[in-house]
Amino acid sequence: MDTNSLAGVLGVVSASATAIVLIAITNYVLASIGYMKIAKRREIKNAGLVWVPIARNWTIGAISDNYDEINGIKRRIKIFLVVFSVIKIAISIAAGSYIGMLMPYIIEYGLDLFTYDIGNTMLLIPVAFEVLGFAIACIIYKVCYVIALYKTFESTEIKKSLIFTILSTVLPFASGLFIFLSREKDSFSKNMVIEDRVEIENKEIQ
Questions:
Q1: How far apart, in Å, are the Cα atoms of 92 and each of 24, 86, 105, 145?
Q2: Residues in CB range of 53: below 8 A, 6 or more apart
Q3: In terms of DSSP H, where are the helices of the chain?
Q4: In degrees rounded to 5, what are phi and psi of residue 183?
Q5: I need a labelling partner for 93 at 20 to 30 A (CA). Which of 2, 117, 134, 186 fits?
Q6: Which backbone phi and psi does 173 adopt, to 5 degrees?
């Protein structure tokens, strides 16, 4: 490959990477504005956490839990979202540290390091458990996130909740736009919310 061709390829890659980053940032900002608006309108505490990575899962889950409580359902999606997002990061750090520790030997011996003898093959076991744990954590987190997303849309755009959830799952960069567009809407009345809160409180007292 000549210099001009290489420069062209690098230019395309750089432009694509820049576009992806800009789209991701825009999606994050739109989603944060939308979630914060919804959370504040429903008097959910610490709505501003939605701007903070990881912590934003608490607000996202709280919106879902709030809507479930109105419908007489008790869930703790916010706890699952926060816990499993932390677990994913913890496993990633652990796996990165372990692989980093092995890297000098991998560079020197290549993949032969793991086939040299049974003892070296055992070095792959921690990696396998970390990959499995990460996959399980990702699946649980994703399921909880989709539930929270659906509940948010159901509480704002009930007729479009399913299609918005599907599109947001298939096209993650579109979720922020849908949340932003739904930020001023409620599929239930303020009076209904107040009545349901009073009913829930009375049940708890009894």
A1: 21, 10, 21, 19
A2: none
A3: 3-41, 56-70, 77-109, 118-121, 124-156, 161-170, 175-181, 190-205
A4: -65, -25
A5: 117
A6: -70, -10
Sign of the CA dihedral with 92 first, then 97, 102, and 104 last: positive
Q: At what angle do helices 77-109 and 56-70 cross, to 10 degrees?
A: 150
Question: Could you give the CA distance from residue 187 to residue 134 in angstroms, rounded to a whole number?
Answer: 36
Helix (H, G, I), strand (E, B) or coil at 55: coil
Structure-block tokens of residue 192: 């209904």
The list of the chain residues with pLDDT below 50 reads 190-198, 200-201, 204
Amino acid, single-letter form, for residue 20: I
Residue 124: count of CB within 10 angstroms of its CB: 13
Q: State the pLDDT at residue 98.
A: 82
Alpha-carbon separation of residue 85 from 46, 73, 134, 143, 189 (angstroms): 19, 24, 10, 12, 33
CA 163/CA 153 separation, integer angstroms:
9
Over its C-alpha atoms, the chain yields an Rg (Å, rounded) of 23
Q: How far is CA 63 from the centre of its chain?
A: 14
CB 144 within 8 A of CB 137: no
- What is residue 194's predicted lDDT score, i.e. its pLDDT? 45
Other C-beta atoms closer than 10 Å to the C-beta of 179 total 27
Distances (CA, A) of 180 to 46, 52, 65, 146: 19, 17, 19, 17
Q: What is the distance of C-alpha 91 from the center of its chain?
A: 16
